[in-house]
Design goal:
alpha/beta, 3-stranded mixed beta sheet, 6-stranded parallel beta sheet, single chain, 9 strands, about 15% strand
Length: about 290
């Protein structure tokens, strides 16, 4: 199959590589050609626009930082839809809001292009080892036809429902995970102030009901004062903002989510946007006057 991939970032390069190693012909584009050198050395083809990617492909994937990037790459004059033939399947692997996906799908429908939201979870390691969870929304028959391709990049591929439902599931997931950085850091400073040791709390909680996914990241990050990305705080703030904006549109009370968004906004204002999302815990460390370190 001829597959196109747009967005050769920290995760995208591994997802694209796994698709190519699955035996498919790969055509790639990124705003910085240097990011694709490894893929090109393994046989991928480079083109100079998203439109050219679409023209060379039966299936196109995008993995981009923000919804506005996805919309631009899909809809601009040299975008995916300008080069797509009827029947093209377009999967957006980014964390994108349902409104953006719906606008792209509405523009794609007259051209006979199928748009599916397919955000991924599992981080850079999951992308490298093809162990991602992929949450897909859109036409179920198109999803079924291409599930085997999706399984080259994720070990858990879940059909979430109609168009936009993959995006909804991913936004909910990220709100929970990112919110845990705030809650867990607050809880750990409580324990430290009361005299407990970081390593002992980690051992106890990791084998108890308080264990969380973010807690398992801490030994190599927060406990070492290591805030190298990872998943950048800027992107975490964006994802929390997508959740609170959905809440406003639905007139849903989301007091805790709004508090989490304020923490991430404050962290961005401190200049931490390029650090890992877990760096938001530094705000609680300052307030508590204690460092959560091993």
């Amino acid at each position: 199959m001829n597959i196109g991939f747009i967005g050769i970032g920290r995760m995208g390069r591994f997802m694209a590589r796994n698709l190519a190693r699955g035996g498919h012909n790969l055509t790639v584009f990124d705003s910085q050609k240097g990011t694709a050198e490894e893929l090109l050395s393994e046989g991928a083809s480079w083109v100079d626009s998203p439109s050219a990617v679409a023209a060379a492909s039966q299936v196109v994937f995008t993995a981009l930082p923000r919804p506005q990037d996805v919309e631009m790459v899909a809809l601009e004059d040299s975008g995916i839809l300008s080069g797509a033939a009827r029947g093209l399947a377009y999967f957006d692997l980014s964390t994108t809001d349902p409104d953006t996906i719906n606008r792209i799908a509405a523009a794609a429908k007259p051209k006979g292009v199928h748009v599916l939201d397919a955000p991924v979870s599992g981080g850079v390691s999951g992308a490298e080892h093809a162990t991602l969870c992929i949450m897909v929304g859109g036409d179920q028959s198109v999803y079924t036809r291409h599930k085997a391709v999706l399984e080259l990049i994720g070990e858990k591929v879940i059909y979430c429902g109609e168009q936009g439902m993959g995006a909804v599931c991913k936004i909910v997931n990220n709100l929970i995970n990112l919110g845990n950085y705030v809650l867990v850091s607050e809880a750990l400073t409580l324990g430290l102030k009361a005299g407990a040791q970081t390593e002992v709390m980690y051992e106890a909680i990791s084998h108890s009901s308080g264990n969380t996914e973010c807690m398992q990241e801490f030994p190599g990050s927060l406990f070492q004062g290591n805030f190298d990305p990872g998943f950048k705080l800027d992107l975490g703030a964006k994802d929390v903002g997508l959740a609170t904006e959905m809440g406003r549109q639905l007139r849903l009370p989301m007091e805790l989510a709004n508090m989490i968004e304020q923490r991430f906004t404050e962290a961005r204002n401190r200049g931490w946007g390029e650090l890992a999302s877990v760096s938001v815990a530094q705000l609680q460390e300052e307030r508590a006057d204690v460092k959560i370190r091993a």
